[in-house]
Amino acid sequence: MTDAVAEAITRVHREEWARVVASLTRRFGDLGLAEDMAGEAFATAVERWPRDGIPPNPGAWVTMTANRKAIDRLRREARRDAKHQEALMLQDDSPPEPTGTVDDDRLRLLFTCCHPALSMEARVALTLRMVGGLTVPEIAHAFLVQEVTMGQRITRAKGKIRAAGIPFRVPEAPDLPARVAGVLAVLYLVFNEGYLASGAESEPVRRELTAEAIRMTRLVRELLPHDGEVAGLLALMLLTEARAAARVSASGELVRLDEQDRGAWDHALIAEGIALVRERVDAVARGEGVPGRYQLLAAINAVHTSVPDARDTDWSQVLALYDQLAGVDPSPIVALNRAIAMSELDGPDVALASVDRLATALDDYHAFHATRADLLRRLGRSADARAAYDRAIALAGNTAEVAHLTRRRGQLGA
To answer: What's the family (predicted)?
Structure first.
């Protein structure tokens, strides 16, 4: 196989997988069949394109091949399963079923994979497989589980969709905001696992996962261009991903934001992310909705990434944005991050008092103890800081983060 053909197959798989699976699911009403036939169609492309050449419209070729393979399978099974006979009668010009607010097969596929009837683990796995096109081994590796376990998880999720009669459609307008929030939560979880991998056996940063999350969020943005939280999540991912090259040192240690080499940041991603933030700020100023969680997090990241030096950070603006975020998401983690911003304005003693009030809620969260350790360190309380570092190290799973915390602890005086 020539490089050109291999690159074409890779590109078409990346760009068309979700569209092919979604189209087959709509036509035949069977997510498992759609997945299998899409896979067989791409396998046929690997076999035939090196010999016959790349077709003029590769995506249409794969879709047509997958459809023919689905029909062939259903014909073989029709004698055993009369239910499938109806599927054979479906034609491309048949009247479309009601599709909800937005008519796009890929969006319907995404909402099906992220249905609230499924567990969050199942939603993530199914979304990566059906929408992202990742293989079962790739998904299993990403989340540090056995391939057989991940395959069973995906199979059970497809079975639940079939058994529960979960419809293949975009929710109607009254239900759309809540369901979009669920989709974004899945994508953000995928991104965060890549941004700061939780497993001790994993690479500390999984760029393939962050890239996949960004790609799928771009798809949602394309399909829901006027949703502010979709734009906010995409901006947040872009501004975070822009710093990836500077986040881990050559020795494998996590590098704090204020110590990163800003020249190594991806400034094209930063410009795109900041443009999205400004777009949403202008929209809110025109009265087009209120900023949600992802928009506010993106705005906070924009403050950090828009200055050439960490010393130029406008901490008063960061704190004001965290105040807004606390009104939208009054969680202990938001309060913890707000206290970090507070320490830059009011000093570590004021911030520590706020952090200590979160002890009950966040005692099992490594970042809580790491934050306490840094504040105690700034106050000269070395023994207390060492104990806090010990607790943070015990709870942290990311290898780069453990290396960073260990070095910080080692710098404390006797």
So the answer is: Belongs to the sigma-70 factor family. ECF subfamily.
